[in-house]
Amino acid sequence: MFTRSEYCDLLVDNINYCIDNKRLRVYEYTIMSSQLHMIVGTEQGNLSKALRDFKSYSAKQILRAIAEHPAENRKEWLLRLFQFFAHRYQDNSEHHFWQFGNQPIDLDKLGKKEQRASSALEHLLNAKLVDDPRHYRFCSAYPGQRVKLSARIL
Which end of the chain is least crowded, N or C, by CB within 10 Å? Predict the structure, then answer.
């Protein structure tokens, strides 16, 4: 899904909005073609609510971008696919974009070695997309990345 840089840029903008307005803290992230991996927390608040708001707003924006993108040759197929999943899993939505739920891992309960292995950047290496995450534009290791990252303490 995130094969066009425009969609990734929208996702980055939405992450930054949640950092500024929903007290989301992002320590690491990786946007891959069909997945988003993040290590996040909140300053004071409800992480589930912040992620729900992020997923809701970003889905609307990305679906709109797909529908309006003049060069999107997968437009009809993608929108039909998101519509199929909405009808299958939801009663109150026209399109279903994000997977239900989150898959949180409590890093405080892991050892340092396990924490490093759970890094959002590990997904890039495991998928063999790059040899060095600093060379992947849509991840927290990229020198020119735009997400307002919080310092991660291990």
Answer: C
Q: Which residues of 74-88 are buried (b: 16+ CB within 10 A; e: fewer)?
A: eeeebbeebeebbee
Cα distance between residue 104 and residue 47, in whole Å: 10
Let me know: does 131 contact 119? Beta carbons within 8 Å: no
Please tell me the distance from the alpha carbon of residue 117 to that of residue 40, in angstroms, as a whole number: 16
- pLDDT at 58 exceeding the cut of 60: yes
Predicted local distance difference test score (pLDDT) of residue 80: 81
Please give the Cα distance from 119 to 141 (Å, whole number).
11
Judge whether 139 and 133 are in contact, CB under 8 Å. yes
Closest Cα partner for 95 from 45, 148, 56? 56
8 A C-beta contact, residue 138 and residue 8: yes
pLDDT above 90 (res 132): yes
- 135 bridge partner residues: none
pLDDT at 100 over 70: no
Q: Length of the chain in residues, anyone?
A: 154
What per-residue confidence (pLDDT) applies to 108? 54
